[in-house]
Amino acid sequence: MTQPQLDTSPKVSDEVRKTTCYMCACRCGINVHMKDGRVAYIEGNRDHPVNRGVLCAKGSAGIMQVNAPSRLRAPLRRVGPRGSGEFEEISWEEALGIAGDWLSRIRGTDPSKLAFFTGRDQSQSFTSFWAQAFGTPNYAAHGGFCSVNMATAGIYTMGGAFWEFGQPDWERTRLFMLFGVAEDHDSNPIKMGIGRLKARGARVIGVNPIRSGYNAVADEWLGITPGTDGLFILSLIHCLMSAGRIDLNYLARYTDAPLLVDDETGLFLRDSDGKTLVIDRATGELAPFDRKAVRPDPNARHPGHQTVLQLMAKRYLCQEYAPEAVADRCGIPAQRIRAIADEIARVAFEEEITLDRAWTDFRGERHETMTGRPVAFHAMRGISAHSNGFQTCRALHVLQILLGSVEVPGGFRFKPPYPKPVEAHPVPHCKTQPDCPLDGPHLGFVRGPEDLALTEDGTPARIDKAFTWENPMSAHGLMHMVISNAHAGDPYPIDTLFLYMANMSWNSSMNTRGVIEMLTDTDENGDYVIPRIIYSDAYSSEMVAYADLILPDTTYLERYDCISLLDRPICEAEAAADAIRWPVVEPDRDVRGFQTVLIQLANLMELPGFVDEGKAPKWRDYADYIVNHERKPGIGPLSGFRGNGDQTGRGAPNPDQLQRYIENGGFFVNHIPGEAGFYKPWNMVYQDWAVGMGFYDKPQPYLFNLYLETMRKFQRAAEGHGERQPPDHLRGQLRRIMDPLPIWYPPFEEEHADPADYPLHALTQRPMAMYHSWGSQNAWLRQIHGHNPLYVPRDVWDRYGFQDGDWARVSSVHGSITVPVALHGGLNAKTVWTWNAIGKRKGAWALDPDAPEATRGFLLNHLIHELLPPRGDGLRWSNSDPITGQAAWFDLRVSIEKVAPQTETDPAFAAIGSPVGRGPKNLQWKVSE
Predict the structure, then answer these.
(1) Statement: residue 2 has pLDDT above 80
(2) Cα distance between the two ends of the chain
(3) How far apart are CA 764 and CA 510, in angstroms?
(4) Cα–Cα–Cα angle for 345, 351, 355, rounded to 5 degrees
């Protein structure tokens, strides 16, 4: 038989260009294969430290982002009503002139009239620098509705958190627990890590109401009731402390467990230099915590004081945290909770790891070995996006610390530039005046009431009310409250809303219909309540139709980007690493990278920091900025190839730096010395290395904070102490929730949604093949997730008599939706869920109006509101964590009923006009043979 002649090694590309993926926040390395100057296909870069050649469906589908029909093509000025999608194309000169005129008038009178907020971009160190130079206090990024609880709780507790801050010790961990982790964040490294764990027989336990993705491959799955993770974690702490299975040596040396707390004030005992005090085990006398050779005693006694460990024992040994007391609420049997605690203790203390690696701690003590507890945790938005999320995240960090499993072999390891103590971070700034920069960084970490962003009369200084008594520790701002507050003129009206990559009229807002109405609402004179909206995006998203001026962005393969150590780097636990994107293809449209546009606007307005003393621009574009900007002498956006190309971390700008990165595959790696690999907060070799890298100006060893004195200061203010006092209506809340030791309280929506009327929890999570809302208009990814049913557990399915193809009406205290349903076998019995951001509005994204995303896709956002229902006190409270302002997406309670099958989901919004029209029925794109 004649065999067909096949070319098994066809020529697939003329050239390979190595850069960094942007299809999610993993920032994997990619090889972009080019033919005749066009993208032929994308594969993973095997030399890259993040993904080592692994690439997911999103990354491979990046090729379809570069030729998506929904790409914006030129600057646009609105000519029809907001929401009509009617625009006219204008030149960049005209667009920059309009934006510059609007912004200059604001800056010259009252810079706070500009609200500048960015979405899931990865250049926040630059955008915040621009906003600070402009002088507005109103800047933040998307973290407030993503996972600020996790990040902030981690920084305050131990100097870093999960994901971008750290990772499990994948090579040594023997027990790995995930809490509330979907598949969109850090997906390739986690998949690779779980693969390594399983290959050597380590156990994986998933704690999540939904069993999908990582939880589906876990050895054990705990289908916890949403919003009760904190209670479950505190019960584990109860079991471990009751059994004496905590690492007392670790707690005494490296944490605040032995610090003395005043019984009357709840504040730490300090010496005349402000140093916190302990009792030295050797002498029995008071001593500063960091004195050379001191041996702190966590069980010491001192008149009128208790140690932090003693306070913890009083609280967590209480029977209210016993498994039997929490089991029903958590949906996990008491016997199972005790078994998990026993397993954690057994692995941590009976499978101890010892490395023959010497190191010296900050008290000058030389250790010949490194001891590790091979239990590691990872958590994300699932436990963060609740109104009790901050304290839940705190509880998980405290659990790790009690085990002694942070920064040790087998446990959780920080990624440079973390760990960083709170003291290494700025406090928030908000003082503004015409034609002047802001008095300091917008975002930061408050140390007490004195750092709140309040005006002289005590009202919020920021439009989102971040860093106020309503949410004192809101380190990422409250992006979900910007439009609502601006529309209400509370605390003041704004003139211009400037958004980047923030699809606030659709999947990035709670109360979607209400937000659309706010964006289009007019006053008695017929003028828009929010006078001007500038928006930048690469694609014709739902938000485009509601802007007055569109500044079109490039796609990620057409621009320079900087994945910086100043911002959100790609480090690993054993190395500092950063990366770039660069234009592997040139745009075929009249578009510009948003960061370059900001520089051009800054040059037009002659913003300080962007122009020299003679008002000449310092930088032409973003690439020029990346190379030549210095945040402080010798410290710039990129750490590699500085000076003459041979300096790392600190060094003068190198004009050839970007080319060196390109030649090196788009990234740079600097490995941590072996002796500095663990115990980073206390290891003096690491501290000296970090100073050399520019993370600190001097070594900053510190103690982990089991007890947060900052929170106690806010409690004391609520009790009437101090010069800055909260309003009376917030005193009770502050006393209750600002507890310096982790607590649990029910999610706030439960106060309004009676379980008898709304018995089910409703959640969204992003699938592994989706991250940005961009992904659901991608021609390849749409074939994986073209629509989304509401997944229902077996008990609910049977109770309501659902069958395949059925539809349901789902209702909350805020509204109702009608959607298709599907049975899901891996669900908490009181939970329904769906994929997020699949549903699209007709007319957007160049999709056909009959596309499944627009007819059978939907958002749970329609059931969620940015404000809680009235409590009877005449006030409307933000639907957020009251400590950080994190949007409480996952507090949602619903009811469900079966309805007749529908042809489209409800609510069905009218189609909006789009400046790019509708894409072709079949998208064909082929490079030459």
Answers:
(1) no
(2) 29
(3) 12
(4) 125
